[in-house]
């Protein structure tokens, strides 16, 4: 067994955020969405453009297709992760599963180099698998938190991981932008850089992170034992009121958070009037604003959780998210979008970091951390499926991404309502509560 609080192990764990966060920034937020929007938009006579694409005989909007493919990826992860996490807990082999999904995601990012709009059916496959790899790895990565750190450290350690992720991914994004805009590097090379960065820096994590924390010696067929491990956790979960109610809230509000992160760039490209300056520069500026402000947001909400308690701190972030949705419906100019982006960055870092650490702090005493975190991750992924699908469906029906904001607003309001019914728990109360 390892000693909780070991700085070397904790630093190695947080460094995986540095390694993998280049995927959500470069691939899902910044460069790839703009590349995808450009190559799937066709010029028409008279200076008009069309965003319709052909996919397996169906004609649909490019952004709708993007939403549906990502929704399918999250559905696949939701189906696989509970069973795989049960096997990982039974064999105490989380690091091997973490490595598999990491390499799947990174290699798929490299495969985006061959993206060809004329073969869209095959070109969307690495988009799908990269998402499966990234989100699948997080199931096993997050499960390490309660094993390597004491409960009192969870908020700070989680915040440090996200902060490193924001910094590292911003560095690679800036490097790629300098090469693309200053040296005319083909955009597709940036997808290769994500793969190399992700695989390369993850080796630091793998070098120090233990594989068999509890020194388990599995016997019998892992598939059957893994399924039984999952059933055992499910039975426990039914009697843990705090955990159940927190997960219900998280399930709903994560629909909004993750969908915003997934679709914000495409929303800005379509719905904001960038004028003669062009959308690309403006979008990159807004993405960097979000990244750097999110660093401060993660640490601020970590501090606030000590003063107010985790639930109240998350509730404040959800109130701000509600305000963001209302404001986003009325934005049309770049300056308005920059202001919204700054606020998004502030609460994005906070709600992501606190959501993970709050869950880890209210887990019961157990060795089945991967199985417990699989429920957390499955709910998050199913939430994204519903969020991304709803977003794409509303746009398809109404013809405007702006109308999809109403779905996000509803997710945050309902999530906040459910959060109010989470019972008190010693691990997530404010620091002054213990004196009363």
The CATH class is: Mainly Alpha
What is the level-2 CATH architecture name? Up-down Bundle
N- to C-terminal separation? 36 Å
Average pLDDT score: 83
Number of DSSP helices? 16
Mass-distribution shape:
globular
**Helix-residue proportion:** over 70%
Extended strand count: 4
Strand content: under 5%
Count the domains: 1
Radius of gyration: 21 Å
Question: Within the CATH hierarchy, at the fold level, what is the topology?
Answer: Growth Hormone, Chain: A
**Would you tell me the structural class of the helices and strands?**
mainly alpha
The main β sheet shows up as:
2 strands, antiparallel
Topology of helices and strands:
Elements: H1 7-20, H2 22-27, H3 31-39, E1 42-43, E2 49-50, E3 52-55, E4 58-61, H4 62-91, H5 94-111, H6 120-142, H7 145-148, H8 154-183, H9 188-208, H10 222-237, H11 241-271, H12 279-308, H13 310-329, H14 334-361, H15 369-398, H16 405-419
Antiparallel strand pairs: 1-2, 3-4
Describe the protein in words.
- α5 packs antiparallel against α9 (188-208).
- The protein contains 16 helices and four strands.
- The two termini are 36 Å apart.
- Helix content is 75%, strand content 3%.
- The mean pLDDT is 83.
- It is mainly alpha-helical and 436 residues long.
- It is globular and about 65 Å long.
- A hairpin with a 2-residue loop joins β3 (52-55) and β4 (58-61).
- The chain has a two-stranded antiparallel ribbon.
- It has a single domain (7-42, 53-435), classed as Growth Hormone, Chain: A (Up-down Bundle), CATH 1.20.1250.
